[in-house]
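User: Run a structure prediction on this.
Assistant: Running it now.
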Amino acid sequence: MDKKAKDILFKTYWTSAGWTNDENRKTDPVDFDYAKSKGVMFDPFSIGKTELVDNLKELVNKISKDDVSNAFLCSLTNKQFELRSAIGSYANALRVVNGDTDKSWDLQEKYVDEDLNVLNFERLKWGGVRHNCINPLILGLNDVKGLTFLVNN
């Protein structure tokens, strides 16, 4: 992961005193574009429930249980917190694509202008914290798709 891009994301949401106040969460457009080009920050995300579930199905079908297990183990040995969320994301994605309608899910008909940046910050800093939300599943599983090179090196 690009260190400069990660620093840009972290400075947007975190200070030495903790969370940055909402009114101070500003990212210079040039910095944002840089972090976005490195896959660390994102434009606002809008998607319907059907498309979201279809995307999760596609991701789950592309990822093996071994890849998810390896991502989790890699996160423990390399302290790559962003990989730690893969195991929970995979299990929860399976629940969603298999039709689990548990009331604890925050599964909406439509998501409009969702802020994936704060979710990515939480995933990189703590391994993810919003386990009842659907959007972090896509972030957590997208890293696993390209994980083979990390595990095999």
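Helices lie at 3-13, 29-37, 49-62, 65-78, 81-97, 116-126, 135-145, 148-152.
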